[in-house]
Design goal:
Structural class: alpha/beta
Number of helices: 11
Radius of gyration: 23 Å
Largest sheet: 9 strands, mixed
CATH class of one domain: Alpha Beta
CATH topology of one domain: GMP Synthetase, Chain A, domain 3
Strand order of the largest sheet: 5-4-6-7-8-9-10-15-14
CATH architecture of one domain: 2-Layer Sandwich
């Protein structure tokens, strides 16, 4: 069934379609300024750079960020304990801070900016406009999410219904009474509202006006997206946000073929062990450097999330690079012959075959070379195994960028009841 309403995918401003070289020059100019300022005013940044023997003048390009170490959430928490309250990352006088956000840890995040509109590009791309009535189900309490989303929606002209989390029945009544046509929250909470409304005897598609939903905070699975769009006619978009560096990092356009990177952040995809930047298409950790917040000297924040970069121009006209999606966490990936193999990507390839019921990827080491073996349980013993093996390996190599060395087809029930989908069995002598 068709979606209730899909608006023309116009751009928020000219910045979204600027030439890629112009974008890089803009970001690197900002980077040089924020590094110089942070080195001068933020003690922890100065200590970090001195230890790495890096001077501000040496950090003027995105590539040069490799000279600096990665700061992680655990580092921020410990630094804010030892150097309260901001861990030595504050770059302005305390009286100049306009807002202080708190993320789990707790981590205090100072903001010096009168206009919180970074998420506005994301909401605009999702179709939110003046005249929309939008339910904001993110909390306004002890979290930046509710306020950030609220103000960004207002930049798009939308009317915001301030609900926050919980109170399911009240939210359902509010949606009906106010004819809410937009939802901001998590996929699971929207599904909870829909199922609760149906338990109350309501027909969600007919009794409610919901047309579009914007998600962050958790994965939007393909099955949930299909249910929302095909069964309920709701156009869905998702965004990637990280609170520590300050908010929206990437967002979907109408093409839904990756997440466009915001210009207010420099995003690297790196090897989480070495911190070295990876090539487009290679899976690694998302590392973020905010270049918009004058108060916050955070440089190279390691998110722990895995993704890869798409550099081809999107058909929507936006010229920014895109994240391929959030593929998992750094602990979920196994490196095979220099490439990270992630369970979610493997699922995408292997489980796309109707003949495979379960699988396991085993990594061994033979003659100083990593060897990848696929063990796949077949639903149908009459399957053409040679053709299936060739198809699986071709697709796997295309998506995961590494070749499967050996494929073993198994009878159903051969794999144990509980097992790791990617098993690292290498022994390092």
């Amino acid at each position: 069934m068709a979606l209730k309403a899909v608006r023309k995918d116009v751009h928020f401003d000219d910045i979204e379609t600027r030439p890629i070289n112009s974008r890089r020059l803009y970001q690197e100019g900002k980077l040089h300024h924020i590094v110089k300022n942070a080195y001068k005013r933020a003690p922890s940044v100065r200590e970090m750079m001195d230890k790495a023997k890096a001077k501000p003048s040496n950090i003027s390009t995105i590539k040069s960020l490799e000279k600096l170490p990665i700061t992680r959430k655990t580092d921020l928490i410990e630094l804010q304990k030892s150097k309260p309250p901001y861990g030595g990352f504050l770059t302005v006088k305390p009286q100049k801070i306009e807002r202080i956000f708190i993320s789990p840890g707790p981590i205090y995040e100072p903001l010096h900016s009168s206009k919180i509109k970074w998420f506005a590009q994301s909401f605009w791309a999702a179709g939110f406009r003046k005249g929309d009535i939008v339910l904001n189900t993110f909390t306004y309490h002890l979290s930046p999410a509710g306020t950030l989303f609220h103000e960004a929606l207002r930049h798009c002209g939308a009317t915001v219904v301030v609900t926050g989390t919980g109170n399911t029945e009240i939210q359902i009544q509010t949606m009906r009474d106010l004819k809410v046509n937009g939802f901001v929250g998590t996929p699971s909470f929207l599904m909870t509202l829909i199922k609760k409304a149906e338990e109350m005897g309501l027909n969600f598609r007919n009794d409610f006006a919901l047309e579009r939903a914007w998600f962050t905070g958790e994965m939007l699975s393909p099955s949930v997206r299909k249910t929302l769009e095909e069964d309920y006619g709701i156009d869905t978009r998702q965004a990637y946000a990280v609170t520590e560096p300050g908010g929206a990092i990437a967002y979907e356009c109408a093409r839904k073929s990756g997440l466009h990177l915001m210009d207010d952040y420099i995003v690297e995809i790196v090897d989480p062990v070495t911190g070295k930047q990876l090539k487009p298409g290679e899976v690694g950790e998302i590392v973020v450097t905010p270049i918009h917040n004058k108060a916050w000297g955070l440089i190279r924040f390691g998110t722990g999330d895995l993704s890869s970069l798409i550099t081809e121009k999107c058909l929507c006209g936006r010229t920014s690079y895109r994240l391929s999606g959030i593929l998992g966490r750094t602990g979920d990936a196994v490196k095979v012959r220099g490439m990270f193999v992630v369970a979610r990507q493997a699922d995408e390839v292997i489980m796309s075959s109707d003949t495979v019921s379960r699988y396991q990827l085993a990594v061994n080491r033979t003659d100083q070379r990593d060897e990848l073996t696929l063990k796949a349980e077949l639903k149908d013993e009459t399957t053409d195994r040679t053709k299936l093996a060739n198809d699986l390996n071709e697709k796997f190599q295309s998506v995961c960028r590494v070749k499967i060395d050996k494929i073993e087809f198994l009878k159903p029930g051969t794999l144990p009841e509980k097992y790791q989908k990617i098993s690292d069995e290498r022994k390092w002598d």
